[in-house]
Amino acid sequence: MEESILLVDDAIFARKLTRKTLDEGGYKNVREAVTAKEALEKISEERPDLILLDITLPDRKDLSLLKEILENDPEMKVIMLSAVGQELIIADAIEMGAREFVSKPFKKDEFLTMIRNVLDE
After folding, report:
1. What does the domain layout of the chain look like in residue ranges?
2. Has residue 6 got a pLDDT over 80?
3. Distance CA 121, CA 3 (A)
4. Strand 100-104 to strand 50-54: parallel, antiparallel, or no bridges (unpaired)?
5. Which class would CATH give 4-120?
6. Closest to 96 measured CA to CA, from 66, 75, 51
7. Which tens digit of pLDDT belongs to each residue from 8-37?
8. Integer CA distances (angstroms), 39 to 69, 84, 98, 104, 108, in order
9. Cα separation of 23 and 85, whole Å?
10. SS (H, E, C) the chain
11. Would the pTM of this model clear 0.85, i.e. be above it?
12. Radius of gyration of the chain measured on its C-alpha atoms
């Protein structure tokens, strides 16, 4: 069965770039969400194998979505996506249970290796 990834990011350019990178890495089963509300709906419809989660969304500007996801499913694999300058938030996210974090813009090979490693955990 092909692994499923939910990409949660409100920036269209970031979603396109991330999706293109995932596609090139062989990840074809990728769904997208732009808001926390939409992400939660998609998670409940079909539990993804991995969530790529941007910290800042239109309806959540903190780690509350990560907290909610992990409270509902402590085994969920989440990689946080962050802009430069959010290092303190990332440390909190890792403490809360995020598996990894990626600073945007990311290096394609490192990003794909990280995804493979987290999926293989």
Report:
1. 4-120
2. yes
3. 13
4. unpaired
5. alpha beta
6. 66
7. 999 999 999 999 999 999 999 999 999 999
8. 10, 23, 16, 20, 24
9. 28
10. CCCEEEEECCCHHHHHHHHHHHHHCCCCEEEEECCHHHHHHHHHHCCCCEEEEECCECCECCCHHHHHHHHHCCCCCEEEEEECCCHHHHHHHHHHCCCEEEEECCCHHHHHHHHHHHHHC
11. yes
12. 13
| Encoded tokens for 26 | 């062989």
- Check whether the bond before 105 is cis (ω within 30° of 0): yes
* Alpha carbons 52 and 83: distance in angstroms, whole number: 13
Residues 6+ apart with CB under 8 A from 86: 55
Two tokens, residue 66: 């990560």
Distance, CA of 14 to CA of 9 (rounded, Å): 7
| Identity at 6, one-letter amino acid code | L
**Contact predicate 12/36, CB 8 Å:** no
